[in-house]
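Chapter review: from sequence to fold.
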Amino acid sequence: MFFFRLIFIFFPLFLFLLVVAGFLLPVCRAYNVGRRARAGLVVALLVCYSKFAFFLVLGGNDFNPDLPCALIWVWNWLYSGAMILACLMVVLCFVPARVKAWLLPSLAWTLAAWGVWNGVKVPHLHEIEVVCDGLPESLDGYRIVQIADIHVSSAAQRWRTEAVVAVANAANADLAVCTGDIVDGPVALRADDVAPLSGLKAKDGVWFVTGNHEFYGEALWREAFDRFGFTFLRNGCVFPREGLALGGLDDEAMCRLVYAGLPEPEPSEVFSDATNGEFRVLLQHRPEYFRDNVRFHGVGLQLSGHTHGGVMPGFAQLIALMNGGFVKGLYRHSAKDRSGWLYVSPGCGQWAGFPIRFFDDPEVSLLVLRHPRALPIL
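The token string follows.
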């Protein structure tokens, strides 16, 4: 399996590197150095582009290698800079070769440093007020803190988990939720890095749902999560406070595609016990089902993640197309006599496979629910 995976990575990589080398050679000639030095520059670039192959060979996994954290992020920076450099050379093809040789590399790796730092830095707390139709007056001002896509890994270890928990706890929320993609990697290596999430605190409890990454070795992680005391909503609901129903869905697509033996989530059954007109809040990792959840299941607020906020301008539009048109922030949908809100968190982490973020800061989200009050009569 390892051999075939290596071939799968190396073959397209080899073809790509041939094209890149041919494209960069004319630019390398602009440096006033000998042939060997120019060849060395090309080889150095090829090493940068070979990140995934080396991660697989040296770290055992192309996307989540078992390597020192600093090495992973340095190589992520080198790789990202090389990719940005190739893009800049295509976009700025009219620029003289000597300018390309000196200006564009500096710009590329400066942008890469910014993007990689945005992916690993501690997220800030972002507060969003949501005026919710059907919210009981007793729940006006109710505070829900959301953690999404933390992606604990060899590149984001215990110290970062502790920092995320500290930000979330500082919100002094009524309810804390985690909407999936908690961890990347095996239990044996990452359990200690995940454990600080058991320190999340909120007045009405802490609740989790799965994302697609929870289904990579999911059976073992399920046991570990139970050991940590994490409470998952698996296609059902609870009532944290009178008038409020909190529902959660397993990640449907991964249940269907990876673990065909598991029952598929049934959104219609999640709120089967909510029969007294409770305001319905749904935790679902992927945002794409939001319209149906409002139309058919009476969801007043859905909290999702998965998209990482689109990562960067331009790329965000592509990610939105793959997620029902939703990528980041607050969305409203009305259907007949029902309306509901969706908040798509940009997430508070990043994974080593795609390490950069531009104009897309990580966040811990704080949703403050507001009761719609009538305008005063003048």
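Two observations follow directly from the output. The mean pLDDT is 86. The radius of gyration is 23 Å.
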